[in-house]
Amino acid sequence: MASQRSGVLELAVLGLLHETPMHGYELRKRLNAVLGAFRAFGYGSLYPCLKELLAQGMIAEEEAPPATPMPLSGRRSKIVYRLTADGKERLQDLLSQAGPAAWEDDGFGVHFAFFGQTRADIRLRILEGRRSRLEERLEGVRAGLTRTRERVDRYTLELQRHGLESVEREVRWLNELIASERQSDASPGSPPAGHRDDGRAGSAG
Amino acid sequence: MASQRSGVLELAVLGLLHETPMHGYELRKRLNAVLGAFRAFGYGSLYPCLKELLAQGMIAEEEAPPATPMPLSGRRSKIVYRLTADGKERLQDLLSQAGPAAWEDDGFGVHFAFFGQTRADIRLRILEGRRSRLEERLEGVRAGLTRTRERVDRYTLELQRHGLESVEREVRWLNELIASERQSDASPGSPPAGHRDDGRAGSAG
DNA sequence: GTTAGCATGTAAGGAGTTACATGATTTT
DNA sequence: AAAATCATGTAACTCCTTACATGCTAAC
Q: Which residue has the higher pLDDT, B123 or A65?
């Protein structure tokens, strides 16, 4: 066990491999297509992560289908990974945690990306958690702004302005999402997203 | 010499102390007022940084003015730091580097915050560097989007959409800034004071 | 007289990052 | 056959985070 690598990468890898088996290089491209706007990972991060997930038994090398052209000898050039049962369990476990890790800057994007696999109540908690996190941040910055008796130069000010605006934007976005979530939650006739909403969590508040 | 701590914090601390001497606690508040929309630092990051900058001679403990109420004995409860000559030099050095460190996600905010201390040509290079960085990112994500023959669920899609929009927004912001920089650069008579007014077309949304 | 905020720190560790190294496969 | 891209990895490092620890000072 030892290193519990509970970072963004692990979740992202498990989540992507849950959709379909892949090899590392492809994984990285998908990774940067999905999360690319927020963060990027290099191979130096990915391969060690794969190595460890493999050691933990969360993923396994997929045996190549016999139809594929064997390179030459027994050595295959691509290593296709798939999620094991343990890996699926771990993924579900990670996606069920509605804590700071899920709504801080680092984690939010990845968690959101796999909301399709996440229970509706957890989704809501994460969205609300992030929103209040951002609102705290707004307050903090605004407090610093109003208390500005120091002469702040125009760049510092412009940065704060732009920062505030971005955060406000995200809050509005979250508001829409939360409203949308509540709506689909309240109407049992229409399923929330694309596929399955397994285990209903009783009633809403 | 040894550890050269050339991270975000160092620059931020040097930059803030250049404006006015402060003690650690206050420094952290200013830090999170200025950069709070992008990132936050705890005391566990700040104090070690101060310690090292002190050891390097970049900052020094300010001697308290005799008028202040001495606590009891020689022990003072607040430690006010000021920038030394070496520190100012180091700050200028850091602010003169128009490289990836200045336009990647981590560094850009801090560098921008202290543009007031930065040479005009460096400012422009950093702004343009960041813009092309973001444009690369846009291309990467868009490439992943168009090549989406896989069924992506609506959350992944919504995340990409929101991410793209945010990045596009920042690009537009950078465009305005760059235009503004070029303008003030070209007109030596008028200082770059006036912050952008509206009146421009386009930004409906 | 006790909470809340001010103020300063340390020890241990994590989650990637950077730079390097190598070979296969496809395109030009 | 050269160049680009695909594909996989390692070693060393770093900047910061988390959790902990302490005491002073103002407010209620």
A: B123
